[in-house]
Amino acid sequence: MSRFPSRRALIDLMSRFVLFQDPWCPFCSRVTRFLDSNQYSLPMRNVAQDHDAYRELVEGGGRGTVPCLRIQQEDGSYRWLYESIDIINFLKVELAS
Q1: How far apart are CA 32 and CA 88, in angstroms?
Q2: Quick check: 16 and 5 in contact, CB under 8 A?
Q3: How far apart are CA 43 and CA 33, in angstroms?
Q4: What is the side-by-side order of every strand in the sheet holding 68-72?
């Protein structure tokens, strides 16, 4: 048995996440570099260009800081995770299980 999730399980897992970011933000770049180096793809919302994305971030997460990972919980609710290192560490654990 592989310690890595199957491709289908990985796609299902990744579909639960949305990364709110700004391409000019160095902390956002840290997260996207992690994703790229591990060949992971997440839906991303550019809050600098998409006013609806920014509004969703503030209303859902409580603040407009990026990067922010929106995590859909099993019950359908959302968890909002801020801070690039926290996001990377969370994804490392989630993607390794």
Answers
A1: 9
A2: no
A3: 15
A4: 44-46, 17-21, 68-72, 78-82
Tokens 């299902």 correspond to what residue? Answer: 12
Instruction: Give me the phi and psi of 64, to 5 degrees please.
Output: -95, 20
Give pLDDT, residue 41: 85
Position of tokens 């998409």? 50
Torsion of CA 15, 20, 22, 25, to 10 degrees: -100
pTM here is 0.85
Q: What is the DSSP string of 27-41?
A: HHHHHHHHHHHTT--
> Is residue 23 very low, low, confident or very high in pLDDT (cuts 50, 70, 90)?
very high
Is residue 73 a contact partner of residue 65, using CB atoms and an 8 Å limit? no
* Dihedral class, residue 48 (left if φ above 0, else alpha if ψ from -120 to 50, else beta): alpha
| 96 in Cβ contact with 4 (< 8 Å) | yes
